[in-house]
Amino acid sequence: MIFDRNASSGGTDVTHSQNTPQVTIQTPGTYEVSFHGNIGPVSTSTLPLTVSLYLQQQGATVPGAFIQHTFQAATDSAGVAFSQILSVTSVPAVLQVAGQGGNFFYGGINLTVQKIGGTPAA
Predict the structure, then answer these.
(1) Angle at 85 between CA 102 and CA 118, to 5 degrees
(2) How far apart are CA 71 and CA 85, in angstroms?
(3) For residue 59, which phi and psi values (nearest 5 degrees)?
(4) Are 84 and 55 in contact (CB under 8 A)?
(5) Cα–Cα distance, 16 to 6 (Å, whole number)
(6) pLDDT in the model for residue 35
(7) 10 Å Cβ neighbour count for 78?
(8) Region (Disordered) spans which residues (predicted)?
């Protein structure tokens, strides 16, 4: 998913370039990652349509950061959200929200990445 704008940012622990899907964590630590937005099937979708969204870190799916919704009508839409705590020990760590399941639209999406602690003890 492409995040077209940047909201407020404090510091340089987390970076994002507008109109790109990747958010980069620059500093090791513990982070809370929260996503929310709206999704729906495009008018040409074969129904029912099941759409899955999930958080990826370095291209691998992050356990627990996943949603799934099944649409029964072309006029349906759904508000979706997930959040997860990440322990980042190797940087830069690239995050993105990926989707699968067919053609769908999305809007009003927001990804918040907030540092909540220092580097975890080994």
Answers:
(1) 140
(2) 29
(3) 85, -5
(4) yes
(5) 7
(6) 98
(7) 15
(8) 1-22
Any idea which architecture 14-116 has in CATH? Sandwich (2.60)
- Of 53, 72, 61, the closest CA to residue 110 belongs to 53
pLDDT tens track for 56-110:
999 999 999 999 999 999 999 999 999 999 999 999 999 999 999 999 999 999 9
| Farthest CA pair distance, the chain | 51
Rounded Cα–Cα distance for residues 14 and 95 (Å): 10
Residue ranges of domains in the chain? 14-116
The answer to whether 48 touches 72, Cβ cutoff 8 Å, is yes
Please name the amino acid found at residue 95: L
Kindly list the distances between the CA atom of residue 118 and the CA atoms of 30, 47, 51, 89, 114, in Å, as whole numbers in the listed order.
Answer: 6, 46, 35, 10, 12
Alpha-carbon dihedral of residues 90, 3, 65, 98, nearest 10 degrees? -90
**What pLDDT score was predicted for residue 65?**
98
Q: 71 is written with which tokens?
A: 């649409």
Which residues partner with 113 through β-bridges?
Answer: 33
